[in-house]
Amino acid sequence: MKNIDFIDGEVLIDLDILNFDQWHENILQEIREHLEKYPEVKNIQIKNPSLRL
Amino acid sequence: MQYSQKVIDHFMHPHNVGKMENPDATATEGSPACGDQVTMYLKIEPDKHTIEDISFLSYGCASNIATASIITDLAKGKTLQEAKKITWHDAVEALDGLPPEKTHCSVLASDTLQAAISNYEITHGFKEVVNFNKDTILEELEKVIYPQVGEDTFPSSW
Fold first, then answer.
1. CB A27 to CB B148 under 8 A?
2. Mean pLDDT across the stretch B103-131?
3. Are B51 and B86 in contact (CB under 8 A)?
4. Given an 8 Å threshold on Cβ–Cβ distance, is B34 in contact with A29?
5. Cα A41 from chain centre
6. What are the residue ranges spanned by the domains of chain B?
7. The pTM is what?
8. For the stretch B123-154, what's the b/e string if a residue is b when 16 or more beta carbons lie within 10 angstroms of its beta carbon?
9. Within chain B, where are the H helices?
10. Which residues of A touch B143 (CB under 8 A)?
């Protein structure tokens, strides 16, 4: 993970796991499960690194 | 997928299973809608603050049930301070390991134990409710496991 922020109820995560990683979706689901239980979290935005050729 | 004999034993014959009547603290973590769920019940000895009794209910996979079972064994008889140090790493070690892709299942049981202890401390005035902030997010993300290697996706060191 490169960066994380929490602004006005929104969690912003700059994730360092590529979209085509086989566990990418599992990780995203786990992140959401861990954070969505908090009423303070209104939205979760997860960015992934783009593959540059 | 290879499970250790201890995992199989705890899954087939889990220890400390069942709802507790009149617990001093309880916590439920996870969600059956999207995955596993564990509830833990604690009975606390009020003078020494030791875990006199502990039980759990699980809606989960074999690893989840085995981990919850071993976590209750590890916590029983411990002081709250000692039990707060029990992690999913301890549970996995006590089970003689889990397949890496199932390691994340162990986190839910240790989370639930810690949440139950925290609820006890808050309701008995030993701890204040901490306001949600960036540190809370980091603490939660440290529990996310990268399945392929069974290691923290977001280690506490970063």
1. no
2. 89
3. no
4. yes
5. 13
6. 5-130
7. 0.77
8. eeeeeeeeeeeeebbeebbbbbbbbeebebbb
9. 5-12, 62-75, 80-83, 88-94, 103-123, 134-141
10. 34
SS3 (DSSP) at B104: helix
Q: Is the pLDDT of residue B103 over 80?
A: yes
Cβ atoms A51, A18 nearer than 8 A: yes
Hey, what are B126's tokens? 């030993």
pLDDT tens by residue, B20-68: 999 999 999 886 666 788 999 999 999 999 999 999 999 989 999 999 9
Measured between CB atoms, which of A23, A26, A34 is closest to B141?
A: A34
Instruction: Please indicate whether residue B61 is annotated as part of the active site.
Output: no
- DSSP 8-state symbol, A11: E
Active-site residue identified among B34, B47, B128, B133: B34
Q: Residue B145: its chain A contacts at CB < 8 A?
A: 30
Q: Answer yes or no: is the ipTM higher than 0.90.
A: no
Mean pLDDT for B97-112 is 87
Distance CA B112, CA B28 (A): 6
Q: Do B144 and A27 touch (CB under 8 A)?
A: yes
Q: Is B32 exposed, middle or buried (0-12, 13-18, 19+ CB in 10 A)?
A: exposed
Domain B5-130, classified CATH 3.90.1010.10, yes or no: yes
Cross-chain Cβ contact B134/A38 below 8 Å: no
